[in-house]
Specification:
Number of helices: 14
Number of strands: 12
GO molecular function: 4 iron, 4 sulfur cluster binding; metal ion binding; oxidoreductase activity
Structural class: alpha/beta
Shape: globular
Order of helices and strands: EHEHEHEHHEHEHHEHEEEHHHHEEH
Strand content: 5-15%
Helix content: 25-40%
Strand order of the largest sheet: 7-6-5-4-3-2-1-8-9-10
Protein name: Anaerobic sulfatase-maturation protein
Family: Belongs to the radical SAM superfamily. Anaerobic sulfatase-maturating enzyme family.
Cofactor: [4Fe-4S] cluster
Oligomer: single chain
Largest sheet: 10 strands, mixed
Radius of gyration: 21 Å
Distance between the termini: 64 Å
Keywords: 4Fe-4S, Iron, Iron-sulfur, Metal-binding, S-adenosyl-L-methionine
């Protein structure tokens, strides 16, 4: 065990991000499509799923020390992080202030919204937390999959949480899982999010596969991420679940929402995919990890201090170590993490390498790369048809907005153009 009480640790070679799960996979809901709930099976039966105060303090100090720049962003997720209780997050802020060392600290908190109350929201406002609310659209679409442990709908409880955020002037955004059902009603979803006051929207495609042999050994119902070094037999490839979005529906969803946004809401509504795509056309670094050339700078921390390569790779094979035993920066900069991140670029299919939109897509998230190309290469994103449709469809408008920006004008002027 390294001595955390001694001198400051050496910072990482580059900024990185950790998604922190103070309650591990525990949640008060039982969303039918959730990939993380079953991760509880990877821990002992008597596991206490809550981060201890000692571990919290070690994490806060070590994470701040590990960041090479002046800004440090903490991201709290789950499971459901509100289950840790308000006291836990008051302690986390106290530790942040204790160890900030002149750095600017930010907090993002992703929640299903059902357990928010006045006390939590007042705290979020006072401490400047950015709160992400998970909501899948209008009531009928949201409640199709997002139910509680008794199978009861949750939409109205989520809306109560959103109203509490508004009451206490908490900055909030929305995260929408695009699934088999709501993907077919893009404008209903978009209008609803806009109408409830969401000015920042994330649309996350839902893709999960039935368990493969490796997952079954670990007692899981959903498949591990694909292994590019060991392509499966095409006949034995795990099937996608019936709640996963279909590529053609996802492509239509993105394009129809874009068409509404580009004619009415540019500058008023921030949609992560659209803004990130414009950034790619402008050559601006950044954007979500799924669109980056390499990955490996977005790690996941479990409640017990175990650090993993990614939120979607919380499996024994991808465990980097424990923050109580090793410095965070050492694990983030390890050869294992470097290789993990470089694989995203180095193992692109030939089809991806010659694609006109590689600069924007970069092959999508490796978790989704379980399809075969016509060349016979394994490792094409299952969602390739959707993203290809989106990038082709939006290219003319993106080029106009990029030229507006480069000439010192506002991309909002795009709304004056006519698209047919």
């Amino acid at each position: 065990m390294y001595d955390k009480s001694m001198t400051l640790a050496t910072p990482s070679s580059a900024p990185f991000h950790i998604m922190t799960k103070p309650m591990g996979p525990l949640c008060n809901l039982d969303c039918k499509y959730c990939f993380y709930l079953e991760k509880a099976r990877l821990f002992p039966n008597n596991e206490r799923f809550k981060m201890s105060d000692d571990l919290l303090e070690t994490y806060v100090r070590s994470y701040i020390e590990a960041q090479p720049g002046p800004n440090v962003s903490f991201a709290w997720q789950g499971g459901e992080p509100t289950l840790a209780g308000l006291r836990f997050f008051k302690k986390s802020v106290a530790f942040q202030k204790k160890y900030a060392g002149g750095k600017q600290i930010e907090n993002a908190f992703q929640t299903n919204g059902t357990l928010l109350n006045d006390e939590f929201c007042q705290f979020f406002h006072t401490e400047g937390f950015l709160v992400g609310i998970s909501i899948d659209g209008p009531e009928k679409l949201h409640d199709a999959y997002r139910v509680d442990r008794e199978g009861e709908p949750t939409y109205r409880r989520v809306m109560r949480g959103i109203e509490l955020c508004k009451k206490h002037k908490v900055e909030f955004n929305t995260l929408t899982v695009v699934n088999r059902l709501n993907a077919r009603e893009p404008l209903a979803v978009y209008r609803h999010l806009r109408d409830i006051g969401s000015a920042f929207m994330q649309f996350i495609p839902l893709v999960e596969r039935q368990a493969d042999d490796a997952s079954s050994i670990n007692g899981l119902d959903l498949s591990h991420p694909p292994d590019f070094d060991l392509p499966p037999d095409r006949k034995s490839e795990p099937e996608v679940t019936d709640w996963s979005v279909l590529p053609r529906d996802l492509g239509d969803f993105f394009c129809r929402v874009f068409d509404r946004w580009v004619t009415r809401d540019v500058g008023k509504t921030y949609i992560q995919l659209f803004d990130a795509t414009l950034g790619k056309w402008l050559g601006i670094p950044g954007g979500p990890c799924t669109m980056a050339e390499t990955c490996g700078r977005g790690l996941a921390l479990e409640h017990n201090g175990d650090l993993y390569a990614c939120d979607h790779y919380v499996y024994p094979r991808y465990r980097l170590g424990n923050i109580m035993n090793e410095p965070i920066a050492t694990m983030a900069d390890s050869e294992t993490m470097q290789a993990f991140g470089d694989d995203k670029r180095d193992k692109l299919t030939r089809m991806c390498q010659r694609c006109d939109y590689r600069f924007a897509c970069n092959g999508d998230c490796p978790k989704h790369r379980f399809a075969w190309t016509d060349d016979g290469d394994y490792g094409l994103s299952y969602l390739c048809p959707a993203y290809l449709q989106f990038f082709k469809h939006t290219a003319p408008a993106m080029q106009i907005m990029a030229k507006l920006y480069q000439s010192g004008r506002s991309p909002t002027e795009i709304m004056k153009h006519s698209f047919k």
